[in-house]
Amino acid sequence: MALPVPDAAVTVPSSSSVRGPGLGLARIWRLVCNPAPGRLGYALRMAAACTTTVLIGEIWQVPELAVPALVTMALWQKDRVTNALAGVAVNVLILILLLIIYGLIRLTLDHPMGLVIVIALLSCSFFFLGSASKLKPVAYMLGLITVYGLIAIDQVPVGEVVTRALLYTDLFLAVPGSVMIVLGLLICPSPKKILTDSIAARLHMAARLLQNPDSLTQERAIDMLREGTADMMKSAKMASLERIWSAHDLACLRQAADSSVAVLALADDVSRAKLSQAQLSRLTETLEGMARIFADGDYPTAVESPVLASEHPSLQAITALLSNFTTPPAPVSSKSPEKKKSGFFSEDAFTNPDHVRFAVKGTAAVMLSYLTFKVLDWPGIHTCIITCFIVALPTMGEMISKLTLRITGALIGGTLGIASIIAVMPHLNGITGFLALVFVVSLIGAWVKTGDERIAYAGFQIGLAFYLTDLKGYGPIADMATARDRIVGIMLGNLITYAMFTSFWPASAYDHLGASLRKLSDCLKRQGTAQSSQNQLDAAALSQSALLESERTLEYAMSEPVHMRADQPRLRAALDALSDASRLTEELLATPRRPDLADRTARLEQIAS
């Protein structure tokens, strides 16, 4: 449908400020409160899934119900297709795990030293897979469940060990997997709807940048911009698996995804210029009209580009993009070279010692936690082992940056758990009130977890502490000792993991900055020398993702202890170079083949060397 270009008044945008890396308390709070498009619905569905898992566990009398609830929170996805695929994968993996655990139980039954050796080998294997393979998103969860299943042997009568261990491990993954398949198909939106909403959000944000670019709007726009198109392209791929959307429509939406990121980048560049209201009003109204169409799940087939009085290059580039916003590029007759397919393991899996060191440090943390609660004869703090699998991070900067979030999340979740035992549980007479309590706290954790990835960790820790505190028996509990023990276990696991990862082979985040800067430089070069507009849009999206990776790495490097932190001039040079690269990727969309491209990318490569 064609879009008219109505007249409207807008305010003059103010100049943009350059963000520095780091997460202060104010920045964290803004990320927590950020009402990002789709975030509330995602959090509500995740909380509903966790509550449903608890309900099924209560009906089937599943022990240690905290584990399947945590698995649900960890693996729940935005759309129905990804949820169904993840649920099927989990249920397939459970068959493999059952065979492994059965064999290990037969080997270690009545052999305590054998059990210790097997736990160490399993921990090392799963930590290695989490560092050097595509199994990274779920490797730690699989390790947690397998190791926990073996540790639980001591807590059941010998004659029932094999049967119960297999049954409990089955239920720990089968219940979340089934919930993800069945409930996900019922309450989650289509990936196509996720895709159109994401495009609409970027167009709305671009219009806001042109209307009133206050500092908060600019900050949220940059956060959205840095996401690139990876998530949107994943949604398009999942939508194609549904077989209910035409290939042409999905091709148009993929093109719109690329175009929306470019429009947002150009709008960010325009927001730093002082342009009159008349120069922006027509364009703003056009973007808002397009956003409404995408928000309704459709897409415009023709967009009437507004005629602008301003000669600003970025404004002219936006209007040029609008005419082909949803028009996919014509298929190229020449056969393009096939992309090299990546294997299950990363290219440096067996050559980079960091993967092995990470596995050894993670295993050491698990074994020290296991030894601690065995020596103390304090089974209630076994949560320290679960915590080790969840909180392990590869570099010193990441460990320190997320330590505050981790401890804060655990304290919030533990406090909610204890407070509910004291003030809420005594007044609950049935399962309904108990499930309502689980839903409310799950929603709090899910809201934080579905936010920016820099705070998502704290959301999962809230769920971890609450579930491990309140999901001990069946139904409402009043056992304060259990709550105390499990919170102590969580804090002990945090402490042991932090000590191990920062004391032995401490890896600096700055060591990883060079690789990300070289990747960014390559993306900028491809963007500046692109032979077609489509190649330029693809390269621009990749540049944004590379910028995000570099900014996060620098953020972690700047939070490291003084004794291993890079010197201040090098950090400042890297920060300035990234700020310049951020401007360059926007400028290249308006004026490709810039004569200063070589000099500005050389600056990145010099810092990376």
What does this structure look like?
α16 (396-423) crosses α21 and α22 (568-590) packs antiparallel against α23. Helices cover 71% and strands 0% of the residues. It starts with 24 loop residues before the first helix and ends with a helix. The chain is globular, with a radius of gyration of 26 Å. The longest helix has 29 residues, at 80-108. It is mainly α and 609 residues long. It folds into four domains: 35-189, no CATH class; 191-322, no CATH class; 372-507, no CATH class; 510-608. The chain is built from 23 helices and no strands.
Question: Percent range for helical residues?
Answer: over 70%
Largest sheet: none
- What distance lies between the first and last C-alpha atoms, to the nearest angstrom? 51 Å
**Strand proportion:** under 5%
Number of strands: 0
Number of helices: 23
Nearest-integer average pLDDT: 84
User: What overall geometry do the principal axes of the alpha carbons give?
Assistant: globular
Coarse structural class = mainly alpha
Output the helix-strand order: HHHHHHHHHHHHHHHHHHHHHHH
Taken together, the total number of domains comes to 4
Are there runs of 5+ residues with pLDDT below 50, and where?
1-20, 333-337
Q: What's the Cα radius of gyration?
A: 26 Å
Domain Integral membrane bound transporter: 369-497
Keywords: Cell membrane, Membrane, Transmembrane, Transmembrane helix
Family: Belongs to the YccS/YhfK family.
Transmembrane segments: 84-105, 111-130, 137-153, 165-188, 403-425, 431-448, 455-475, 487-510
